[in-house]
């Protein structure tokens, strides 16, 4: 999908767009051919950081609700594209409070990457919620990771 905001007065219009998806596919915001990463996870709020009006393309994905939000300014063109990623869910016998008191998402990503022998940049936590404790995450190839997605998938399996 391509999004462009057109108006009569340059650089005065903007909006936050919210898309509710019926499935949990991985998606990316692309600006000028470059993927704009989701806002960082905020362990205190237990969610991705809110979409700010700082720059066109600022975005977050709310995994447990399958909602993608992004900021669009006048004259800026953004594309929403499927990401080539492995989506995984793990359920653990912990409370959400215990999870965050033991290091939260960064510790989880470090330990998962270490156990799989992959670069930490490959792991992206998408959501954390109760149900004992459920962590949704995705694995995707990055510049820092020399393995191909199929090789990472084999490790995950």
Q: Provide the domain count.
A: 2
Morphology call = globular
Strand order, main sheet: write it out. 1-9-3-4
Overall pLDDT = 88
The ordered string of helix (H) and strand (E) elements is EEEEEEEEEEHHEEH
Bin the helical content: 10-25%
- Termini, distance in Å? 32 Å
Number of strands: 12
Low-confidence stretches: none
Please give the count of helices: 3
Radius of gyration: 17 Å
- Determine the structural class based on helices, strands and strand pairing: alpha+beta
Largest beta-sheet details: 4 strands, antiparallel
How does this model look, in words?
The chain is α+β, with helices and mostly antiparallel strands and 157 residues long. It folds into two domains: 81 residues, no CATH class; 71 residues. The protein is 17% helix and 39% strand. The chain has three helices and twelve strands. The strands form four sheets. Strands 1-9-3-4 form a four-stranded antiparallel sheet, with no helix packed on it. Strands 2-8-7 form a three-stranded antiparallel sheet, with no helix packed on it. A hairpin with a 4-residue loop joins strand 5 and strand 6. The longest helix has 13 residues. The chain is globular and about 55 Å long. It starts with a strand and ends with a helix.
SSE diagram, text form:
Layout: E1 2-4, E2 14-20, E3 27-31, E4 34-36, E5 41-42, E6 47-48, E7 59-62, E8 67-73, E9 77-82, E10 86-92, H1 96-101, H2 104-116, E11 123-130, E12 133-139, H3 149-156
Throw out a few tags for this protein.
12 strands; 3 helices; 2 domains; alpha+beta
């Amino acid at each position: 999908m391509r999004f462009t905001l057109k108006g009569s007065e340059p650089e005065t219009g903007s909006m936050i767009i919210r898309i509710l998806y019926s499935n949990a596919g991985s998606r990316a915001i692309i600006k000028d051919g470059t993927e704009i990463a989701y806002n960082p996870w905020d362990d205190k709020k237990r969610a991705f950081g809110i979409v700010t009006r700082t720059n066109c393309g600022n975005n977050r994905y709310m995994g447990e609700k399958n909602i993608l939000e992004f900021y669009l300014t006048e004259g800026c063109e953004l594309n929403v594209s499927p990401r080539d990623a492995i989506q995984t869910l793990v359920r653990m016998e912990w409370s959400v409070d215990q999870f965050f008191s033991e290091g939260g998402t960064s510790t989880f990503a470090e330990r998962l990457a270490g156990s799989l022998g992959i670069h930490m940049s490959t792991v992206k936590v998408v959501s954390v919620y109760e149900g004992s404790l459920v962590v949704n995450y995705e694995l995707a190839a990055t510049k820092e990771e020399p393995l191909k997605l199929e090789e990472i998938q084999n490790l995950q399996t």
